[in-house]
Design a protein that fits this description.
It contains 10 helices and 12 strands. It is α/β, with parallel strands linked by helices and 285 residues long. Bound molecules: 2'-monophosphoadenosine-5'-diphosphate.
């Protein structure tokens, strides 16, 4: 691998396959905006090679300052780094690595990305108390972490497989509760926030009819799926007069903490960056 010097830090995203990750587009935009001569490159790492790749990060021979971790390494990476922070530990997955004081550290920035997107698009969203989270997969863990950190006192997790929702309650404690999908309408009644974390609404899946009008006045509906940008769940909520926020901002904001750690500058999520990613999504749809 190419060695970097201090003026040209090199960061990465690893995955297998690495496919068409949008992270290089985002980080290279920020590098250009800041006039930095750093690098951010995708690297395909097979699961069998993950441990030796991490060794090259730890001993400095890769010349890399840190990077992002995506599927299928987000869970496995936690056992390989020197230090996992509390956020990544609770979420059970890490997506951001960096070297600090000679140690390889890991966090998960999805929780930050989720909250920062709503801070930008729906300020005051965290004044609510009751949230309904639809889905109990990997992505919902980050959402639940953010909701509890922002002071929601009741986070109701509704999932097709209720046992998965119960496993999340074991992790996150009594602020969360587990339910089946059949309880969805009951849970939504009077809620401040609804978050879809399921893959429902992506191509080829049918979405059940949901009556959002029973939510509290001024309630918000958001979806962490951003392809399509306006998911069927968001369309449904909008038609019923609810305020909605799409999930693209979560992708953009989750990238910011890593950029700051590797390149030393806090980047801005601008409308121009959002348009750049939308154009890329359209070009690859
Ligand atoms: P991710 O890491 O993106 O969250 P995941 O772990 O595969 O992905 O989780 C996908 C979520 O979408 C789960 O909550 C899943 O429900 P199950 O736990 O019951 O599988 C939910 N999901 C996917 N397809 C669904 C469907 N057709 N109906 C209801 N829920 C669905």
């Amino acid at each position: 691998m190419v060695k970097s010097d201090n003026r040209q830090p090199r960061a990465f995203i690893i995955g297998y396959p690495i496919g068409h990750s949008r992270s290089p587009l985002i980080h290279r935009y920020w590098l250009e905006q800041a006039g930095l001569e750093g690098h951010y490159d995708p690297i395909q790492i097979a699961p069998a090679d993950l441990a030796s790749f991490v060794d090259t990060l730890k001993n400095g021979s890769s010349g890399l300052v840190g990077g992002n971790v995506t599927i299928p390494h987000k869970e496995a990476i936690a056992d390989l780094v020197d230090e996992v922070d509390e956020t990544a530990r609770q979420i059970g997955a890490a997506n951001t690595l960096w070297l600090e004081d000679g140690r390889l550290k890991a966090t998960n920035t999805d929780s930050h990305g989720f909250a920062a997107n709503l801070d930008e698009k729906a300020p005051g969203w965290d004044n609510g108390e009751t949230a309904v989270v639809f889905g109990a997969g990997g992505a919902s863990r980050a959402v639940i972490h953010a909701l509890l950190a922002r002071g929601f006192t009741s986070v109701c997790i509704a999932n097709r497989t209720e046992a998965r929702a119960r496993a999340l309650v074991d992790t996150f404690g009594p602020g969360a509760s587990a339910h089946g999908i059949d309880q969805l309408s009951e849970l939504i009644s009077g809620a401040d926030l609804f978050v879809n974390t399921t893959s429902l609404g992506m191509v080829g899946t049918e979405v059940p009819a949901i009556d959002f009008t029973v939510m509290k006045a001024g309630a918000l509906v958001t979806d962490i799926v951003y392809i399509p940008l306006e998911t069927p769940i968001l369309q449904m909520a909008k038609r019923q007069g609810l305020a909605t926020v799409d999930g693209l901002g979560m992708l953009l904001h989750q990238a910011a903490p890593g950029f700051e750690k590797w390149f030393g500058i806090s980047p801005q999520v601008t409308p121009e960056l959002r348009q750049l990613v939308i154009a890329d999504m359209e070009a690859h749809s």
